[in-house]
Amino acid sequence: MNDLPISDIVSLALGAAAAGAVSGLLAGLFGIGGGAVLVPIFYQALGALGVDEAVRMHVAVGTSLAIIVPTSLRSFQAHFARGAVDVALLRSFVVAVPAGVVVASLIAASISSAGLRIVFAAIALSVGLRLLFNRAHWRLGDRVPGNPWRALIGFLIGLLSTLMGIGGGVMNNTFMTLYGRPIHQAVATSAGVGVLIAIPGSIGYVWAGWGNPLLPVGSTGFVNWIALALIFPVTILAAPLGVRLSHALKRRHLEIGFGLFMLVVAARFAWSLVG
């Protein structure tokens, strides 16, 4: 990485800034924290830089979670100011979601790179198909379930989202809309779920990769601070624009856009597994 030509370093910096702009926009638009964009981009970029396959996906996921921290906070602040967040539901996740994050961090310390990519691709595919072909009658109920089911769902949202390196919007949007909640409310609440996932998740990935000799320069555990420093400012600026777009779009348009996006992400990781 230290031997990269200046032109490659500049290209990487420009690519990281572009990824930050897209991830910030999507954080506000879909409440997904941008991780579904950042993880595939990081994975490819780290491969081009010669980072060992054994840690490449882990660094992509861990760094994505660290970047989601400011993105989710900014997105949540903007949605909360509009009164769109289901505060009661979010409060009920305060223990369950971080508990799932802790377990995911323990798993990340031993799971293979291919295992992480399989998790990412499988969940992205299922969620994308569900949203793309969604029908109004595709519901599990008209009321979000209470405990113990809600706690279990919150745990799974934290667990699976942390393994994917995303902010929880993919899971929480699906959960809330399956129980009849408006997509705009689901998006707004997902920004808060992203905060509950990203902060403990990034700490967990630092712990999981601590001292690994295969890590690229500028990393603490599975979090790379160089990439974070390049992308952080752009995500903060782009997130409020995504929020404005979210509230301007119709529900079905939002679902179709989110669904198509997730299918593209699933295809990208499926290709990396067979390629």
Features:
single chain, mainly alpha, two-stranded antiparallel ribbon, cell membrane, TM_pro_TauE-like, Probable membrane transporter protein, membrane
Describe the fold and architecture.
The structure is a single chain. This protein is mainly alpha-helical and 275 residues long. The protein has one domain. It is built from 11 helices and 2 strands, in the order αααααααααββαα. It has a two-stranded antiparallel sheet with strand order 1-2. Helix 2 packs antiparallel against helix 3, helix 5 (96-108) packs across helix 9 (183-208) and helix 7 (149-164) runs antiparallel to helix 8.
| Sheet with most strands | 2 strands, antiparallel
Order of strands, main sheet, comes to 1-2
Structural class comes to mainly alpha
Strand segment tally: 2
Proportion of strand residues: under 5%
Categorize the overall geometry. Answer: globular
Low-confidence stretches: none
Terminal residue distance:
24 Å
Mean pLDDT: 82
